[in-house]
Specification:
Shape: globular
Number of helices: 3
Number of strands: 10
Strand order of the largest sheet: 3-4-5-9-8-7-6
Order of helices and strands: HEEEEEHEEEEHE
Structural class: alpha+beta
Largest sheet: 7 strands, antiparallel
Helix content: 10-25%
Distance between the termini: 10 Å
């Protein structure tokens, strides 16, 4: 049986449920600090969920000295300059998920390998939004956020992860942080701003993970991009054998 998730439905009575598909999977905790797409997610839910309104500061694993940070002084992305269009694509993990979402109309889709997520990138290649699905829907967004914090705490100090904020709502959780990509991806050490959001279905468990990434001065527009995606996203699942 296929299922659909939409935050429009979530705002009223919760996201529509998914049934008849799935298995053990990634739970929506992909990590994007090195190569795109994410490293493997953490499978087991954490025992303790984060408390809304608190901002823990994980201590990165000291496996290398902090890098020299470069601040890209490009003009900030302006939310007023963005127009949106609905795009559809398919991702595959434990199940096959057909995703429909509104993103900036001139951002280009890039299929990721492995195909657990889709990414839309602006013409400068400095900003993008990633949408991940196909994982098993088994734990709430707050637990996925907590798992991400645990992952970030283990990142090399050379990537200079700094947690900016976290927020847990009834049907989604949001995490903001900055970091410096590893030298392979960014030899200049350009500081990046990331906003990650985990959106629940009507079971209360995470169905879609999204991250909006750019430069620190883009943060308001990045949130606007993420909000448009959150308000419009739909996930329809079918078994891999179907």
């Amino acid at each position: 049986m296929a299922g659909t998730v939409s935050r429009r439905a979530m705002l009223g009575a919760g996201l529509l449920t998914l049934a008849g598909v799935g298995g053990a999977g990634g739970y929506g905790v992909g990590l994007f600090l090195t190569k795109e797409p994410s490293l493997a997610g953490t499978a087991a839910p954490l025992a303790v969920s984060p408390t809304p309104g608190t901002t823990p500061t994980p201590t990165p694993t000291p496996t290398g000295p902090p890098r020299k940070v470069t601040y890209d002084k490009s003009p900030a992305l302006d939310a007023d300059d963005l127009s949106y269009a609905t795009r559809t694509f398919t991702v595959t993990d434990m199940v096959r998920s057909r995703i429909s979402v509104r993103v900036p109309s001139d951002w280009v889709y890039t299929k990721q390998t492995p195909p657990k997520s889709g990414r839309f990138t602006d013409r400068t290649k400095k900003r993008w939004i990633r949408v991940e699905a196909g994982f098993t829907i088994t734990r709430p967004p707050a637990d996925s956020l907590a798992a991400r914090l645990k992952q970030l705490a283990g990142i090399s100090a050379s990537q200079m992860v700094k947690i900016l904020s976290q927020e847990v709502e009834a049907n989604y959780a949001t995490l903001s942080y900055t970091y410096v990509p590893d030298e392979e991806l960014s030899p200049e050490g350009v500081l990046r701003h990331v906003i990650v959001r985990w959106v629940a279905d009507d079971t209360g468990n995470c169905a879609v993970e999204m991250s909006s990434t750019g430069l620190p001065q883009d943060k308001d527009a990045l949130l606007d991009v993420l909000d448009h995606a959150t308000d419009s996203v739909q996930r329809r699942d079918t078994p891999l054998s179907g």
